[in-house]
């Protein structure tokens, strides 16, 4: 179950109580995050997912964020994609969606995460989880963890309360205003804006693999205003599996290996598209 937001919810952070990580998150909101120098590519420049062609050096964003093909690449390193921040949604007092058979979304996603993590690690990715037990970090805690990484993508896992059982959908955050503040920085609650193109690419690759595993799933990623994604300064997707309405929990458990395989394959296929200039992530 995804928490979808409206524009009015953009003031969410200003109404948050201060304390602990929330204080940290709010401090980041006030300070804004630096726009990371990530080289978004035109689709034509991107190798096809299964291409064996090695990635080429790509132009580095010029000062002010404009891309220039004449900009001398300042030691572009293909540090690239090495980390997957995996987010089992909900947890703690937030059980997420609940089925009539007692299925709790917060528990299922944690079990799915174990298998997704294993599949990713087998392909050489380092996996960082936003939670490992029945706890409930805030949206901003989870985003802050992702934003502190260099060379990472973010995947949040959900079980829906709707949709045909046995299918899975990928969501990318809907368009966000990309205007920078006068100081050239992008506010915390629009951190996803510069990454939307890459998020769409990642989302389509994962969705394509899910569609092969689970008939009836869409062929491409969809867009929605997903609260968790908006504050994440990395290519970010939400994967939603249907559904908690299954009568037998084993029907959901049986999807985990296929979901894990599809996410791992999708992220691996995305790897050549993710080229970061030789600077760190959004927040250090
Ligand atoms: Zn959910």
In a few lines, what is going on in this structure?
With 284 residues, the protein is an alpha/beta fold.
Please give the number of β-strands. Answer: 6
Cofactors, ions, other ligands = zinc ion
By CATH, the architecture of the domain at 80-178 and 186-277 is named 3-Layer(aba) Sandwich
Please write the string of helix (H) and strand (E) elements.
HEHEHEEHEHEHH
Rg: 18 Å
The mean pLDDT is 78
CATH superfamily of the domain at 80-178 and 186-277: Zn-dependent exopeptidases
Count of DSSP helices? 7
- Largest sheet, strands/sense/barrel: 6 strands, mixed
Low-confidence stretches: 7-78, 277-284
- Indicate the proportion of strand residues: 5-15%
Shape estimate: globular
* CATH class bucket of the domain at 80-178 and 186-277: Alpha Beta
For the largest beta sheet, what order do the strands appear in spatially?
Answer: 2-1-3-6-4-5
